[in-house]
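Hi W., the magnesium ion complex you wanted:
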Amino acid sequence: MQNQRMPAPLPTPSSKPAVKPLTGPQKALRKLGLNRPIDLALHMPLRYEDETSLVKLRDVREGDAAQLEGVVTHSEVKLIGHRQLLVTLDDGTGTCLLRFFTYYPSQQKALATGNRIRVRGEIRGGFAGLTMMHPVVKPAGGELATALTPVYPTVAGLPQTYLRRAVQAGLARAELPDTIPPQYLHEISLQPLWNMRKALYFLHNPTPDVSLAALQDHSHPAWQRLKAEELLAQQLSQLQSRRARARLRAPMLASSVLGDGPLAAVGGAAQAQATARDVNLTATQPLAQRLLATLPFQLTDAQTRVVAEITQDIARPVPMHRLLQGDVGAGKTVVAALAAAVCMDAGWQCALMAPTEILATQHFAKLVGWLHPLGITVAWLTGSQKTKERREMLALIASGQARLVVGTHALIQGKVQFHKLALAIIDEQHRFGVAQRLALRTKMALDASATGEAHLAQGHRGSGFAGPQGVAPSDGEAATRNESAAGVEPHLLMMTATPIPRTLAMSFYADLDVSTIDELPPGRTPIVTKVVHDTRRDEVIARIGDQIAQGRQIYWVCPLIEESEALDLTNATETHAQLSTALPGVMVGLLHSRMPVLEKKAVMGQFTGGQMAVLVSTTVIEVGVDVPNASLMVIEHAERFGLSQLHQLRGRVGRGAAASACVLLYSTGDAPRLGETARARLKAMLDTNDGFEIARRDLEIRGPGEFMGARQSGDAMLRFADVTEDAHLLDWARRMAPVMLDAHPALAEQHVQLWLGGKAEFLKA
Ligand code: ADP
Ligand code: MG
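Structure:
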């Protein structure tokens, strides 16, 4: 009995009136996210139908959407494989056959011979003459519509007529204040007359004289206004978050040796790179300096420059929020390590989070290799860890003994308590979802504020933000900030090998600073890319044999193992078996996402160690894996991969001095040739090795929505504006946002609320 759930209390007469259950269409509205009047008002038509006029059959052509009236001259049910209702309509200028495969008796009655009716539908040709399939039927003679009829995106269970009424009602009730001061609108010759209310009213009820083309291609002033408003909201919200961050405090991660020297010495971004290298790295940062000295290579100029950008940022008492982008193999890891070294030098903790276990393991090995000899304890955390080890790691992290922590998203889980986290680095940040990035920021903020308070209590040189070695804020501004600060956050460095094209960066990452490594380390031979039809697989396998004979290693990547057999992908297992047979005496490994983590690690270890010559895998190796001896990458069913993904995979080779190649095996299946976008992707891979060019093409092929992935998905997406097409509006919004925030803060806030409501947070992740 005790296990039984308590019945829900019955509503008493005094309680709130019972909530009426939602009707089907109401539920469907919810499903579309159309809850508030403003949501409905912003639900834009897909297209319009013209019910404002009648046409004559003599004037119509095949493919026209037509509305006409006439007399039914014939009506019969016929069995042509299937029961059909066939109706002949005569409008005095010609006849048209109306065909219905399903119909109610009432409809049949309305379509009886002799009735005058009005029909609307698409005219088709065919050997029976002009035909309409399932036209909309009404009695003739009714009033004609005065506006074009909008057709909305909808879902099952939500008829257009219901949705139309709901949208009109939403439009009538939505508050649509004019939030943009007219003088701003003049800047891009938007007429203040076309305010939101008028624009939306028009787009839901356009007059028949309007150019349908201007509605369709969104060049109409009403559309321009809508897009300008949306972009302004986006820019305002990002600017707000940038300014909010500027009010936060962060530990100042500068050298304890030169005090407030490095900032002054390094100066502005225009400072010569040589100076940055000499002053910032060799003279001021003992740990960073020692790390540099032990590296088996010299930093490239680009690496030196971004390290300077980062170290300048983290020396300030304001949280850094920086994206480090650089093509695959550009050497981002060492930049991260140097930033971490500066952080640890100042006596703080640093965390590095990677999207996969394999990558985390590899970072861990690399960083331990670099930092352990320098006396640094590196902890590590992943989901697959044994409880005992995990407990030890958590203790190392909480006590502060581990000054660097490397791991997967296990780093942001509840139990993890940092001692004094000051710098968080996220590798391959685009692989983390919006939710994870938000979680990280929230978690870090909490932990850091606890840390901040601990130091306040210790009263280091009277500053809450002194590091353990007592680096006090060096200027008055910092002191004031500390006083009035709203909170404390660590510095955040995000890294990505998928560069974001400029327009997107301006739009979606406007609250980020961006550092770019635009140069590869020297001595890399460019990768030769080949596109090869799957029928020539045997030749490719023979080539693998040659490579192995030269002591090289090979990746062979297959599409994911799918549940559905219908997809008929040659899966990794089959290929593994095939290669094992074809290459006797060669160690061929298999790696896929469904394997237990320990097994994955063992396989990866054998490949990294050089014992394994060929690694067949699914895309688990896509991100970050670094085995310089691998010189051939074969991608099977390359036509199924996205462009950025192909480029990332290709970047796994060409990391050493040996000539490297990437073979894109493709198959057309039953089709005579590849689809257009697949062809465009493979062509882009042939055309260029440059990650920025690849990103630009990828954006072109996929469009901004797809390209941005999770960040842009769902509610956070720009619904109306297109950052490439509407570049002039984006440019305007970027210029107006700071002006408006300063001159009209209340209107700015109202504008953001109207457009983004509670979603603004989401955009900032
Ligand atoms: P990514 O930017 O893709 O993360 P990695 O950090 O994995 O690239 O670096 C790729 C390889 O290049 C690694 O083996 C790394 O040690 C090496 N590397 C990094 N910087 C340099 C450099 N300046 N000169 C030579 N090799 C470098
Ligand atoms: Mg990397």
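Residues 297-300, 303, 326, 328-334, 497, 521, 624, 626, 628, 655 surround adenosine-5'-diphosphate (ligand 1) (CB under 6 Å).

W.
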